[in-house]
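May I ask for a single protein's sequence together with how it folds?
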Amino acid sequence: MGGRLGSGIAARLPFGRVEGLLLAVALIWGVSYSVVKVAVAEVSVAQLLLLRFGLTFLLLLPALGVLVRQWRAAAAGGALLLGVNLLAIFACESWGVAQTSAANAAFLVSLCVAFTPLCEWWLLGERPGRHVLLAALVSVLGALLLAFAHGDGLRLPGIGDALMVLAACLRALMVCLTRRHGDRHGWPALTMTAVQMGVMAAGSATLMAGQFGTDWPALPVSRPFWAALAFLVLLCTLFAFFAQNYAASRTSASRVALLTGSEPLWGALVAVLWLGEPLSAQGWLGGALIVAAAWWVSRPGARRG
């Protein structure tokens, strides 16, 4: 019933609103890989996560007021589980991008488009349409071309690449769990985001304690770091997670994954233009395939396929 309700809502929305939000999220998250690369040059991954999600949680505290009026133990438990899953995603992504190129990290995480339709089928009982499966296969082909591309030829994946693939698996699970939670409990997207940020802040503090004990490092003072942190908090976290939580309850999980699957192309562009990372013709071909797949599922009439 939840799946049919979500599809019905999606059908009533003016075409392009949800798709536009998801493509904006893809652009912002694509830029974030280079921004994280800059930030982790000055602080540890655990400290960056704590600053990012702790500040976001403080900004979202007013959104928790709805819990007083709509408190349900099952809904709270589901939101906490989503927060734990998000912490695992960002730990994998942050450590992964610290050990591989920003462009490669963005490429590999896009493999979530291949995992999401299967996750959606398993968790939500919704068999993806043929056009979605075809687009997922095209995205996977593009991601593989990108993952093994280097400025001067082929490269073998490393530990950072493996962490990004694990993050892609967890992203697919996250999209489906968010959709199921929205169908069952109907909490506002901003409240869901606030709960998730609280869990992630607490988890990041635990990681900091495990790494540094009670002797936590001082905060950096450089302007580039704080500019990077502001971008991560305001756009990559506050806006992007609200938009994703909003969209996940109004369209299919597969479409969410595929539309945000244009993220690697933006990540590659920024990494090449800003960080000077090399990218071969094979890499650009892979990015073009991913963007083509995202366009295919967002075209008018795709919902019926």
Observations:
- The chain has one domain: 2-304.
- The two ends are 20 Å apart (CA to CA).
